[in-house]
Amino acid sequence: RPAEEVKQSLTKLQEAYEKWITEHEELTKLIEDDAEFETEEAWLAECQEAFMNFEIEGKKHLDEAAKQVSEENITNSQPSASASDAHNEIIAIKMKTTMLI
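Request: output the structure for the sequence above.
Response:
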């Protein structure tokens, strides 16, 4: 996925998660039965773990995309060996020509 799309999805996921946590806290305030409360808290923990995994995977994807772009920029900014060799050969010819004159 494109990095910008992943960033937007992570932002939306974070916003939905925060809203969900707030609503879940309001719900658990209404629970009087301890067993039901424990069930809700266990479910909350599972959901939090799933959210963290999604967030981690999204951030890994963004890091890899940034690394790939950086490597491509470095590769594209370096002259190829043949271009460098040709440049050096031209300089050598010019130096020889200058010495002959």
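The two ends are 61 Å apart (CA to CA).
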